[in-house]
Amino acid sequence: MDNVNANIEKVLSQKIFKPNRDFAKLARIKNMCEYEDLCYNADSDYEKFWGDLAREKISWFHPFNKVLNTENAPFYKWFEGGKLNVSYQCIDRHLKEKKNKVAIIFEGEMGDYKVVTYRKLYTEVNKTANLLKNHFDIRKGDRVVLYMPMIPEVAIVMLACARIGAIHSVVFGGFSPEALRDRIQDAEAKLVVTADGAFRKGKPYMLKPAVDKALENNSCPSVKKVLIVERNGEDIEYVRGRDFSYNEMIAHERSIFEPEPMDSEDPLFLLYTSGSTGKPKGVQHSSAGYILHAQLTMEWVFDIKDSDNYWCTADVGWITGHTYLIYGPLACGATTLIYEGTLAYPNYGRWWQMIEEYKIDKFYTSPTAIRMLYSHAEHEPRNYDLSSLKVLGTVGEPINPTAWKWFYEEIGGGRCSIVDTWWQTETGGNMITPLPGATPIKPGCATLPLPGIIAEVLHEDGSRVENGEQGLLCITKPWPSMIRNIWGDSERYIESYFSQVKRDGMPIYFSGDGAIIDEKGYITITGRTDDVVNVSGHRIGTAEIESAITKHESVAESACVSKLDPITGESLFAYIVLHENVPRSMGEELEIMKEINGILSKEIGNIAKLGAALFVPGLPKTRSGKIMRRILKSIARGEEVKQDISTLEDPSIVEKIVKIVTNV
Ligand code: WT7
């Protein structure tokens, strides 16, 4: 398989595939003229464009009086004066026409399944809202942390929070108790909702013990209670007065709960993500702007239809799980599939079998999953009928042309557009992506920004780079679903996103990604320019990794960079300097590496394991003590070191490291 990301030129020279004409005829956006018309409308009157869409798409309790307020930029406000409730938008407004339509199809890994109609979803969300309010005193603005598996209750609890106006913060179930504790503390959550556990790889796994660990020694004083959904039936301990069973309590609740009228800008949720420095940051999203973009992109990018069965494989603990598993599909009144388990249980045909069984029309997944399925069972899809598929989507990382072509031909039968969607936790929804009925697609290229999204590839001074030259991927106008703040840290919000690129003194949103734009305006993402590593589409901050590694008593210092990996896209590569008195031997180093991986999985979770570690005598540093990571990245990727090393405090260290690498 070709190296992911390594060969941008290969992507740039790919041939173009045209959208399927039969599909296009029925699509919402049928051709490039229609796309360009929308872009033209957005360009000629930006506020009218977004204002009209917001009026059309959202069921307002009270209309807004201002589309965009830039007075306090970059703290933008959208649709001020408007009142809405996101749970109403996702459920109540569909009931008149779709009360018996399936909202959620759930399939457990062991093959059990369940359908939840819109009517049933309404009942369950209302009961849950009553439960949260009456027994756990959850009010508007309170934070609720969810540490849950992929089961319908996760959607129900998220929507119940939205109904009350409480702010949810979903923590990925693969994060360790320590990582969970950090997030609970930062959000000062009042309640944690979890499950005993669920099923994975054919076996039960546990979540509740991690919550106990996160809360032990009264380390999260804000948390008063824990609510537990029973899923796998394994024994768990209930702490008296603190822990309560969802399944027992929910039966007694009333199924009517008036949705709280929320301001457009009231936060809907927090979602923690890694930055290049420091602890994870709580990305804060709004109510109106977020749900508008979630709904709109389901219509534009997935061309969601009433009869569709739609499946997004992302875990609910990531932004894709928020926007394209739950909020987007439900805001459209669509049917969304929630699958509990892994892609390889009982074998590598599981996903294809589910697509056949549920006649999935639109399928959204990650390049890492595609590469795994391709490399383990290339011909397996041929055993299944995948002819229901119409649109395929990928997200989270660049997709290499080889994986793209397999996805296109073997899964999509050469008939489906692939929407390679570029976006981020911070953008709330898709930003740069093909439209399936309109955009000619190019393997590995995210193509064009959506109408109303102004993406540019810039130098730091805000000027545009030449076509074909790499630059900084920026969004130069605010957009409705953008991040509103970092929870509790406005300075970090400005510092993280609005400090690197300025145009005429005005701060511009910089994504952290590099990109190349061609003469047609097609944008190819070249990867992060900062110290963030993308492992299987999971964002990992190297600063967090380094601070965990140095907790090992033998380690003096370390530097972590990304290395290319044929399956996970990138992997973590750590350079480790041991204290002088530590005995050196292969055996000793292997032992330390094992212990370091143990620390990483305890501090962060299993997604943070090192792909490789190299024990070195020192790190390349400038005279002011700054580690030159770019040099280390080049070495890890087996590239020639082109950076100027003469300004290093000890230039000979580079040669020493290269020597060690070539000997390994
Ligand atoms: C980072 C955002 C967006 C939801 C999942 C990840 C990378 C995302 C693509 C793509 C190339 C991509 C970027 C971005 N990324 N989509 N289609 N092609 N790279 O969300 O954890 O916030 O990560 O993922 O580097 O900055 P996230």
Automatic annotation (TrEMBL):
Cofactor(s) the protein requires to work: Mg(2+)
UniProt catalytic activity: acetate + ATP + CoA = acetyl-CoA + AMP + diphosphate
Molecular function terms from GO: acetate-CoA ligase activity; AMP binding; ATP binding; metal ion binding
Domain annotation AMP-binding enzyme C-terminal: ranges: 544-626
Residues of the AMP-dependent synthetase/ligase domain: 92-479
Enzyme class: ligase
Entry's family note: Belongs to the ATP-dependent AMP-binding enzyme family.
CDD domains in the cross-refs: ACS
GO CC, alphabetical: cytosol
Residues where CoA binds: R200, K201, G202, K203, T320, S536
Annotated positions of the N6-acetyllysine modification: K626
Protein known as: Acetyl-coenzyme A synthetase
This protein's UniProt keywords: Acetylation, ATP-binding, Ligase, Magnesium, Metal-binding, Nucleotide-binding
Post-translational modification: Acetylated. Deacetylation by the SIR2-homolog deacetylase activates the enzyme.
Origin superkingdom: Bacteria
Domain Acetyl-coenzyme A synthetase N-terminal stretches: 35-90
